[in-house]
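User: I'm writing a short report section on ligand binding and want a predicted complex to refer to. Could you take this sequence and L-histidinol and write out the structure as tokens? A short remark afterwards would be nice.
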Amino acid sequence: MKIAKLSNAMSLQRSVEQANVNHVKTVREVIDHVRQNGDKALFDYTEKWDGAKLTNLQVTKEEVEAAFADFDPQLVQDLEEAAANIRAFHTQQVRPNIDFQLDESSYIKYKITPLDAVGLYVPGGTAAYPSSVLMNAIPAVVAGVKRVVIVSPPSKEGKLPASVLVAARIAGITEIYKVGGAQAIAALAYGTETIKSVDKITGPGNSYVALAKREVFGRVAIDMIAGPSEIAIIADDTAFADEVASDLLAQAEHDRFASSVLITTSEKLAREVQLEVERQLKQLPREDIARASIENFGCIYIAESLAKAVDAVNELAPEHLEIITEQPEIISEQIRHAGAIFIGRFSSEPVGDYFVGTNHVLPTNSTARFSSGLSVDDFIKKTSVVYYSEEMWQKHYPKIARLARLEQLEGHARSVESRSWSKEEFHDC
Ligand SMILES: NC(=O)c1ccc[n+]([C@@H]2O[C@H](COP(=O)([O-])OP(=O)(O)OC[C@H]3O[C@@H](n4cnc5c(N)ncnc54)[C@H](O)[C@@H]3O)[C@@H](O)[C@H]2O)c1
Ligand SMILES: N[C@H](CO)Cc1c[nH]c[nH+]1
Ligand SMILES: [Zn+2]
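Assistant: Sure. The structure tokens for the complex follow:
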């Protein structure tokens, strides 16, 4: 892992965008093919890219039951406890309608309505992510979405991982399809014979999935384009090198394009973390992925001061930030841009990935400057409602008409003026 002076921090450029460009053509072809050929295209692509020859796209009740029956009861309990924590935190995010009384009878409102149907993409491919099932499904259920659908690519044997099915059942989701990649996103957006279209698609995935979400945006809503995982750690000489190294590697093992950055005021810690990363890399089953990520997108930066480290993090706006310093809460208050912040040595990032209750679907690629992680807000919409009494109308319509004429919109002015006789007079006619 490289060590550099912090002045070079922002030269850490990712080449993810370039990889994306190469996939755009494929993704557009896949979407067109699914629109034209429906289920047949889904079967063909699943055979081509996942190696599975399916006869049925939908997961049956029996498959879910079988997965549950064979699953380690301790893990079921762990998933259930994680689900309860996620449910508890997300329930706090539920918003009431806003009612604003204008006079005795007139009012305006902000009315909250859950979305009717959402599709959750659960990545398959290189790993199974039951935690992502919980992180996507629970906020949707808490928001009150009626139809929640899961799509995920099957194994060569035509199965979804038991852990994904168990997590889906714990979250209360029963409509699950064995399809992944851009073809799954196209099916959710446009519908096929088997999969009815949805209103919004959420969930992370590889660059084919991310690009497909971008392509169908407008036809349906999407949560975000969540790219490869990222972590930045601010640490001083109170941090332990082995702990810091393991936190960097926890993100690196996700993806060859994941980025892991340490910003420290301690040169000693920097050198020790460098050695530790190398030592611990050899112990990881996904060493090849983690090593590629650390070599291409990993760096240890030496900062002159913690204030400079804070500035760099605010510029970088990382998906995850860990603060392992003498007074981490004080540093945390100065952070303006990060998807999620983990304070102190006992709040390592996997606490949030799996268990504590916060969401792990977070903005990447510096988009934490202007966006937030997945929440109940992603599964609702807000409609304004207006009720004007005759008295309110009487009082304000001349002002509205004048404002309309200021914009030379005579039709608007006449619309508001056209009520210039009361209901009683109307009924008397
Ligand atoms: N941000 C988060 O919360 C979070 C959580 C979990 C995973 N992730 C990320 O999700 C991603 C998972 O990626 P993955 O690949 O393992 O699974 P995936 O499910 O996203 O993608 C697998 C699918 O990609 C498609 N595909 C593969 N090769 C293709 C090709 N040559 N042409 C067209 N389509 C092709 C296939 O349809 C396949 O089913 C990783 O980047 C990981 O970091 C993020
Ligand atoms: N750290 C990932 C988001 O960047 C989420 C995840 C899922 N499983 C483990 N981790
Ligand atoms: Zn993770």
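A remark for your report: The chain has three domains: 2-14+227-360, 38-226, 389-428. Residues 16-37 form the longest helix (22 residues).
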